[in-house]
Design brief:
Aminopeptidase, single chain, binds coenzyme A, globular, 7 strands, alpha+beta, acyltransferase activity, 7-stranded mixed β-sheet
Length: about 170
């Protein structure tokens, strides 16, 4: 069985380790190795993770094996994104061995429930335009509502689709 719990500061190293194990396989055909290293440092240094949680209102949920407590992956979200009635999913990553087993659906369903309780109208997220996670999000009820190219410095760009899912509260 899988348990979903809210992460504490104590869990930030686990989140960083899962990102470092998951990003290379996720992005090897999409981004250069130097861009992957740059983005991991930018988004997953312990300082960056602490800032997301303490100053930016990001909440991380962990998916854990109920018996062993092994952590399989995480999702992070932010209510009322940019003052709108939207819950933004900033991150969702599962270890390669834990993908394709329904854990991603469980994490999205959990955040959808929390967002409905918070009376937000939509879930929103950004996804790389070449990431096969797009099909997963479509299966979860998201549609592409726009695209966005973000200059993240050092000559690197994030070329994303914006996807949203109405929550029908
Ligand atoms: C994307 C990710 C979170 C999805 O979670 P998951 O646990 O692998 O997906 P699930 O097993 O819950 O799949 C749920 C449904 O989506 C479908 N699905 C999942 N990935 C799919 C894909 N690549 N193409 C088509 N359908 C897909 C499943 O078949 C399933 O459909 P069903 O309910 O009809 O059986 C996970 O695979 C992952 O961490 N990938 C690498 C990191 C990544 O790309 N993160 C997103 C960054 S924006």
């Amino acid at each position: 069985m899988i348990t979903i719990t809210e992460a504490t500061e104590h869990d930030l190293p686990i989140i960083r380790d899962i990102a470092y194990q998951t990003w290379p396989t996720t992005f090897e055909e999409i981004l250069s190795p130097s861009q992957i290293s740059y983005m991991l440092e930018m988004m997953y240094s312990l300082d960056a993770l602490r800032t997301q949680v303490k100053d930016k209102n990001h909440v991380f949920l962990l998916a854990q094996e109920s018996d062993s407590q092994d952590c399989l992956g995480y999702i992070s979200y932010e209510f009322d994104y940019e003052g709108q009635s939207k819950t933004k999913i900033h991150k969702i990553y599962l270890l390669p061995a834990s993908q394709g087993k329904g854990v991603g659906r469980l994490l999205i369903d959990n955040v959808a429930k929390l967002a409905i309780d918070h009376t937000n109208a939509d879930l929103a997220l950004n996804v790389n335009r070449y990431n096969k996670a797009i099909q997963f999000y479509e299966r979860m009820g998201f549609t592409i509502v726009g695209n966005e190219t973000i200059d993240i410095g050092d000559g690197f760009l994030m070329e994303d689709f914006i996807m949203e899912k109405p929550l029908n509260t």
